[in-house]
Amino acid sequence: xxxxxxxxxxxxxxxxxxxxxxxxxxxxxxxxxxxxxxxxxxxxxxxxxxxxxxxxxxxxxxxxxxxxxxxxxxxxxxxxxxxxxxxxxxxxxxxxxxxxxxxxxxxxxxxxxxxxxxxxxxxxxxxxxxxxxxxxxxxxxxxxxxxxxxxxxxxxxxxxxxxxxxxxxxxxxxxxxxxxxxxxxx
Amino acid sequence: xxxxxxxxxxxxxxxxxxxxxxxxxxxxxxxxxxxxxxxxxxxxxxxxxxxxxxxxxxxxxxxxxxxxxxxxxxxxxxxxxxxxxxxxxxxxxxxxxxxxxxxxxxxxxxxxxxxxxxxxxxxxxxxxxxxxxxxxxxxxxxxxxxxxxxxxxxxxxxxxxxxxxxxxxxxxxxxxxxxxxxxxxxxxxxxxxxxxxxx
Lengths: 186, 199
Prior knowledge:
The complex is a heterodimer.
Chain A: H1 2-15, E1 22-25, E2 31-38, E3 41-47, E4 50-55, E5 65-71, E6 75-76, H2 80-87, E7 99-111, E8 114-123, E9 126-139, E10 142-152, E11 169-183
Antiparallel strand pairs in A: 1-4, 1-11, 2-3, 2-11, 3-6, 4-5, 5-7, 7-8, 8-9, 9-10, 10-11
Chain B: H1 13-39, H2 47-74, H3 86-115, E1 123-125, E2 129-131, H4 135-138, H5 142-181
Antiparallel strand pairs in B: 1-2
Helix pairs in contact in B: 1-2, 2-3, 3-5
């Protein structure tokens, strides 16, 4: 009886997918923001509230999976008036769409410490494929990720009406991720 | 037929036209400003157009008020009606001087606020032509513009509320003259009315 149970356990363990390592974001050392040319000058906003659910093992990228959830109303810049507009209906419409998400569909290794995350970005309920190239450096149980993605804001209806034009706010937005995480259970 | 210039007894057509036109525009913009700041949703698709109209009316008030101030300085003004106390004379003159200040300062503060904006939205005067920003303010570094924007915004709002209060006092004064004292103060500021000349 015991031997049968043991044999079953071995079989189950063999067929279940390998669990990729789980990582916890160190929010104090992490930053998610964006830069866009606004009125001929770079404008930078950061999200004060977001989380990322990270399953990642460089040796097993097939099971790597990341879901980032961003509170759109937490966008903050040096100008509170501008932030009000960005949170408003013409911008993120934060009251109607409080979160934006990025879900990876595949993470691939390029070379050295360079990776590319392909995924789906959802803002204002609109989903589009986005690629996020990033670098990854490990220091013990800590990993530091630096990534940068190009997004066309109007594909997500961020900037409607008067703001849909490329002037004064450019359509191309650079999303910057600077993330430090520690391996779960270590 | 009233003359264009003021006489020693009454206001002329130019002064009266400027008075009533600016009054109309000022009341309109006090209402539309209050509506924009407190009632209209920023997400309203008409918000942008509404602000452009508010700005165009304000700049019209500014232009007319500067002309009116010049006109006031080169024209005689009718005297106080007989029997007004020193206190009431001070209140009346004070109200008028404050009004001259406000009808120039409020649109100027609004223009300075817009010129300090970092958003880069141009002002179109009733859709006819672009109205420039105040260059000195528009060329400041971003952090300075944001700080100035908050300051001029506060000026604009508080001066506008002051004008609303002053308007109540001014109208009360006019009604007091018209119905309580029954003198010619309101009539001499209305078109075509006959004022008995004093010798």
